[in-house]
Design brief:
Helix content is 48%, strand content 8%. The chain has 477 residues and is an alpha+beta fold. It folds into 2 domains: 224 residues, no CATH class; 207 residues, no CATH class. The strands form 4 sheets. Strands 5-6-7-8-11 form a 5-stranded antiparallel beta sheet, sandwiched between helices. It has a two-stranded antiparallel sheet with strand order 1-2. A hairpin with a 5-residue loop joins β9 and β10. α9 crosses α12 and α13 crosses α14. The longest helix is centred in the middle third of the chain and has 21 residues. The radius of gyration is 27 Å and the shape is elongated. The structure holds zinc ion. The site of zinc ion (ZN) has 7 residues, from α5.
Length: 477
C-alpha cells in the first residue's frame, strides 16, 4: 500500500495514493474547514494538530468504561503501541502532553529523507507504532532491514493521525474509502468527522445506530458521481497480535444502478421490500440488523469472495411462499434483480420464452402449487432444471400446446455450466413468479393484508437512500 504522490501542492498537505494517508489528508482538510487537502495551510494543520492532541489527551487519561474512554478504544485499534495508547502511558494530562505534541513537530531539516508518502523532505522517522498496518503481516509495507523507521513529513504525520476522524470507526476497527470521485471522498470524510466529534464527546453509546460505511459510501456516490465510479472500502484493525484488513469493492456501474432504481417506482418497491426483509430482530424485538444498511452492503463484494449476493437474497424472498408479498411486490423484486444483473453485472438476459413455458406448465397442473414447489426445488440446479424443462415441454406438447413453446435450443444456455448461468436461472425464477402472479395463479399462502399494502405504497414513494440515516449529525457538533 505504499504510494508516492506527486509533489504539486504548495501547502504542507498532499492526498497521496496511499488509502490511509489519503483518507487522513481529507479528514485534516475537513477539520480545517477547507474543501481540498491542497488548500490546507500550515496554520490550518497547526490548528488541526492542537485539536487532535487535546482529543488524544482526553481519551488517554479518561477513566476506563466512561464515554470519553471510547475514543481511546478507537486510537488503540489504529495505533496499539503508541504513546497515546500503551498501557504504561502517564495518566496525568500534563505529563503526557509533551510526548503527544512531539509527534506533530514541524520538520526542522531533511535528515530523515524523503517522506514515505509524499516525498517531501522529512526530519522524523516513524516506526510502526504510529502508522497503522505498517510492518504487519497483512500488508506489504514492510521495513527494509537496518532501517529504523519510515521518514514521514509534518503534513503526513498529521494526516496519519487525522485518519480516525475521516474513517468510519468502531471500537475495534476503522474503514476508509478510496474511489475515483473526489467529491465522494470529501463527503465520506465530512460525515465521519461529524460522527467522530460525537464519539469524542459522548462515546459510542451517545451515537444513534446511524449509517454504516457502505451506506455512507452509496449516499456519497449518489450525490457526487452519477456516472461510472468504482469504490473500495478498507476495513482494518491494527492489532498487536492479529492485525487484519478486509477489502470490499463496488463495481463501477453501481452509481448508475442506484440512479435507475431511485427513478422508478417498481424498482424502488423492490429495493424497499428487500431492505425490509433483511431487517433482523432479537428476542426482545430490538433491531439487530437494519435492513437499509444490510441492503447497501449487498452492493459491496469482498475481495476474498465471501460476500452475500443481492440476486440470491432476492431469490430467497421470491421463493418463500409462506411470506405474503404485497401486490406488485413480486414484480418489483424481479425487476430489481434484472436491473442489477444488467447494470452491475453487465449481463444481458431474455428468459421470457422459457419463463412462459414453465409458467404455463405450472398453471395447467391439477395442483399449480405442487408444480410450483417442484420447480422451486429444481430452479437453481442446471441438471434438475434441465430435467424439469424436458418434462414440462413434453407434457405441454401432449396437451397440444406446441406452437408457442420455447424449444430445447432456447433453454440450453440456462442448463449448461457456463459463466452467469446460475444468475440466469435466478432471473428465470423471478420472471416465472411474476408471470404466475399476473395470471392469477395462487402460489403463496395468502395475499398481504391491507395495512401491509398501504405500508408498502408509502415506502415506495420514498427515495432508496435517506439522509435521515445520518442522525449522528443532530445534537452538538
Ligand atoms: Zn509526506
Amino acid at each position: 500500500m505504499t504510494a508516492t504522490g506527486p509533489l504539486t501542492a504548495t501547502g504542507p498537505l498532499t492526498a497521496t495514493g496511499h488509502p490511509l494517508q489519503r483518507a487522513g489528508a481529507w479528514a485534516a482538510a475537513v477539520m480545517a474547514g477547507r474543501s481540498h487537502p491542497d488548500d490546507v495551510t500550515t496554520a490550518d494543520v497547526e490548528r488541526v494538530a492542537q485539536v487532535m492532541v487535546q482529543d488524544v489527551l482526553t481519551a488517554a487519561t479518561a477513566v476506563k468504561d466512561t464515554d470519553r474512554y471510547d475514543w481511546w478504544k478507537v486510537l488503540n485499534a489504529l495505533y496499539p503501541n503508541s504513546k497515546a495508547t500503551r498501557s504504561s502511558r502517564p495518566r496525568d494530562r500534563a505529563l503526557l502532553q509533551a510526548e503527544i505534541e512531539a509527534l506533530f513537530v514541524p520538520d526542522t531539516d531533511q535528515t530523515a529523507g524523503p517522506c514515505a508518502f509524499c516525498s517531501r523532505p522529512a526530519s522524523v522517522l516513524w516506526a510502526k507504532s504510529n502508522l497503522p498496518l505498517f510492518d504487519s503481516s497483512s500488508v506489504v509495507n514492510m521495513l527494509p532491514l537496518q532501517m529504523r523507521g519510515w521518514p514521514v513529513c509534518y503534513g503526513c504525520r498529521i494526516a496519519m493521525w487525522a485518519l480516525p476522524y475521516g474513517a468510519w470507526v468502531s471500537a475495534g476497527s476503522a474503514t476508509v474509502l478510496s474511489c475515483e470521485s473526489e467529491a465522494a471522498i470529501a463527503q465520506f470524510a465530512r460525515r465521519n468527522v461529524q460522527r467522530a466529534r460525537r464519539i469524542t464527546q459522548a462515546g459510542f453509546t451517545g451515537l444513534p445506530a446511524g449509517a454504516r460505511p457502505e451506506y455512507v459510501t452509496l449516499v456519497a456516490l449518489r450525490d457526487a458521481a452519477p456516472g461510472l465510479c468504482a469504490t473500495t472500502l478498507w476495513t482494518f484493525k491494527n492489532d498487536n497480535q492479529e492485525p487484519w484488513l478486509r477489502v470490499t469493492q463496488t463495481r463501477r456501474a453501481v452509481p448508475v444502478f442506484l440512479a435507475r432504481v431511485d427513478a422508478n417506482a417498481a424498482l424502488r418497491r423492490g429495493w424497499h421490500l428487500l431492505a425490509r426483509a433483511l431487517t433482523r430482530y432479537d428476542k426482545a424485538g430490538k433491531v439487530t440488523a437494519h435492513g437499509v444498511q444490510e441492503a447497501a452492503r449487498l452492493l459491496f463484494e469482498a475481495e476474498d469472495g465471501r460476500s452475500q449476493s443481492l440476486l440470491l437474497r432476492v431469490h430467497e424472498l421470491l421463493k418463500d411462499t409462506d411470506r405474503p408479498l404485497p401486490a406488485g411486490g413480486r414484480e418489483g423484486l424481479a425487476r430489481l434483480a434484472l436491473a442489477y444483473a444488467e447494470e452491475v453485472l453487465g449481463m444481458t438476459s431474455d428468459v421470457t420464452a422459457v419463463a412462459t413455458l414453465i409458467a404455463q406448465w405450472i398453471a395447467r397442473g391439477t395442483s399449480p402449487r405442487g408444480r410450483f414447489a417442484e420447480y422451486r426445488s429444481a430452479a437453481l440446479s442446471d441438471y434438475k432444471l434441465g430435467m424439469l424443462l424436458m418434462q414440462a415441454y413434453s407434457r405441454l406438447l401432449l396437451d397440444g400446446q406446441a406452437p408457442a413453446l420455447a424449444g430445447p435450443e432456447q433453454w440450453q444456455a440456462l442448463i449448461q455450466r457456463r459463466p452467469r448461468a446460475w444468475e440466469q436461472r435466478m432471473l428465470l425464477f423471478a420472471q416465472v413468479s411474476v408471470l404466475l402472479q399476473q395470471q392469477g395463479v395462487a402460489i403463496s399462502e395468502q395475499p398481504a393484508n391491507e395495512e401491509e399494502q398501504r405500508r408498502l405504497e408509502a415506502l415506495e414513494n420514498q427515495p432508496i437512500l435517506d439522509d435521515a440515516e445520518f442522525d449522528y449529525e443532530m445534537g452538538p457538533a
